[in-house]
Structures are given as structure tokens and as C-alpha cells.
Amino acid sequence: MKYYIIAGEASGDLHGSNLMKGLYAQDAGADIRFWGGEKMDAVFRAHQDGAGLVQDYRDGAVMGFWEVLLKARSLGRKLQRCKADIAAWKPDVIILIDYPGFNFKVAEFAHDAGFTVYYYIAPKVWASREGRIRKLKAYVDRLFIVFPFEIPYFQSKGVPFSYAGNPLVDAVDGSRALQETRQDFLQRTGLPDVPWIALLAGSRNMEISSMMPTFMEFARRWHAQDPSMHFVVAAAPSRTLEDYAKYLGQTDFVHVVFGETYGALRHARAAIINSGTASLEAALIGTPQMVAYKVAPVSAFIMRRIITVKYVSLANLIIDRLAFREFLQENFTVDHLEAEMQRLLPDGPYRDKMLQDYQEIRRLLGGTGASEAVAKAMIDGLKN
């Protein structure tokens, strides 16, 4: 069968790549065309010839209401290209992965054109913009959810869904970073054998520009007090050193690695993370953390009026309490980061409690095998 998959950001590329592995395993004749990134492209090239990648997500990925508005014309052109490509290729199913601002428009077009539409990784309608449920019911044939707290929510809304666990468990547990030793990781990346704090600023230019100045001020202040501590910026593979150079200055205690997020987290004493999927990955890896996040003031103004959940971090939502602290907007300050890091770094009850909560989060997510189970459910649905 022919599968057309659309992922618009780094986390979607990760989940899409694992889903593609499952589709190839379950369907020997799978023919896949996709919007995504290098992870999805690597899986495609291992199973098919030709060029399956239509559009790289790294070309202009944005988030935040104001930020999206600024890119509206470019996104409109991409949408028209996507519609034309789907119409020409005529897939058996279109699989949308998160990225709701773009993917809901694709879903409406695809449904009206008579294509089967699956949505994998549900848009976070339980957090904001609940009115989108109407679109899920109207344009999506089946939703594939990945968080246990979504089960009662979508049941109450009457949205058809399947749940087979969370694919991040597979991604983390099967990663090279969790198999290799610290020394192997250091040798491979060239990082020094010193204690470090991991800094994750996100994968988009707008995130990097909003997070890195405060991260660097924190790093300089902390290093002045503790010269033994270094800092590793875990950068997305889509970025280059130029994206960070203007923030780094003349420092020899801040290092940047690309595409090594899991290893940087695993071998860190603690991490400061720009929300998103990475905070849940850190919980599964077992790295004590705090979450920080900042968007443009206009976006923050709107978000505060429409977001209905207590926490922004997936791990905190899963466990329904603060497993780790969240410092958002005006609370994202060096003083707050310093105070929390002083609690995180020493071995003791505070750190131990966070690690215990991580075990509970992992238990709630279920075991391994989610990606292939979802792929099988999708294929079974298409056959019936």
C-alpha cells in the first residue's frame, strides 16, 4: 500500500521514522512518500530506492501564534504544494503526525478529496483550542493517541481512537546512547570527561534566539562559582554551529553537539530543557531536569487565555503533578534557574524523589513495541 506521511518538526521526524519501520515490517510492499527529516529519510533509504522525501521540516518550522503569522505566506505555498503532491501521488492513506496548524488543513483537503486520513500523535486539543475536535470528527478517519491521560478525554468527546503505548519508550530504550558506555560516548563526540549540565534550547531558530541568552548567562554565572562544571548544548541535527556561535562568546566550558540529545542527557548531572518532547525523553532516560520556555509576548498573551492544562510538560501531565519544575515566560530567569539547580545537583531526597516519579511515568506509558503496534493497527484498518 501507499502511505503519505506528514511530520513538521523534530519530534514528528522521530516518531515518523519509528512508524515507518513498523509499516515496512508489517507491509512488505509498503511504498512511502513523506514530509519529514533525516530520521525518516534514513529509514526510507534503508527500505526503498528513489526519493521519498518531499519537504524537509527544517525548512522554516515555526511555532507560536505570532511566529506562525509572520510565516503565513510561506506556509500557504507549502500547503498548496502538499495538496498537489497528494493529488498526483494518490496514496491509500495519509498519516498526519502532530503539527496541527498545517495538518488540519491537509486533513480537510484530503477528506474532501476522498482519501483515508489517519492522525498519529493527537493534536493537543485537551490543552487548548478544543474546538478542533470538530475537525477531528469531520476530517479524520481514525486518531492514534500516545498518552494514557488522553484515553478518557477522547472517549468523552466521542472521537474514534486507538492506543498502543508511547513510541518514545522504543526510541529511548533502543537508542545507541543507552547502549554505549560513557567513555565510548566521550570518544565519539570529543566531549571532555568532566561533569556537565545539558542545555536544550529547542530546534527552531525562534526558540534558540529566545532561550540561548538566558542559558549562557546562567552558564557563565554557575561556572564562575564552580569551575569544574561544564555545559553541553544538545543541538538538533537540523541546526549548525552558526545558529549558536553568536551566543557562545569566548567560552571553553560550553560545548555544542548535534544529534546527540540522548547521550548528552544520559551523561549529564542535570538538564534545563525547552519543554517539548525532550522533557519526556529526559524522564525516560533518568536525567534530573527543569523545564524552561519563552515565546514572543504576543504569543504568550494569547496562550495564557486559551491553554487549559495545569502543566506544559508531558511528563508532568502524565503523572498529574510536578515531577519537575517549569519556569515559563517571566519566570524564566537566571535567578530561578540557579536556585533550582542548587536543589537538583546534590544527591539527596529532592533528586531521589524526581527519579522515583520518573519510574512512575515510565510505568504509566507502558512497555515497548508501540510503533509497530500502531503500524499494524493502521494496516489492519485499511484492509477492513
Could you describe the 3D structure shown?
The chain is an alpha/beta fold and 384 residues long. Helix content is 51%, strand content 16%. The chain has a seven-stranded parallel beta sheet with strand order 3-2-1-4-5-6-7, sandwiched between helices. It has a six-stranded parallel beta sheet with strand order 10-9-8-11-12-13, with helices on both faces. β4, α5 and β5 form a beta-alpha-beta unit. α1 crosses α8. The longest helix has 21 residues. The protein starts with a strand and ends with a helix.
Give the topology, please:
Blueprint: E1 2-7, H1 10-26, E2 31-36, H2 38-47, E3 53-56, H3 65-70, H4 72-89, E4 93-97, H5 100-112, E5 116-120, H6 133-139, E6 142-145, H7 150-157, E7 161-163, H8 167-173, H9 182-189, E8 196-200, H10 205-225, E9 230-235, H11 242-248, E10 254-258, H12 261-266, E11 270-273, H13 276-285, E12 289-293, H14 297-306, H15 314-319, E13 326-328, H16 334-344, H17 349-365, H18 370-383
Parallel strand pairs: 1-2, 1-4, 2-3, 4-5, 5-6, 6-7, 8-9, 8-11, 9-10, 11-12, 12-13
Helix pairs in contact: 1-2, 1-8, 1-18, 4-5, 5-6, 8-13, 10-11, 10-16
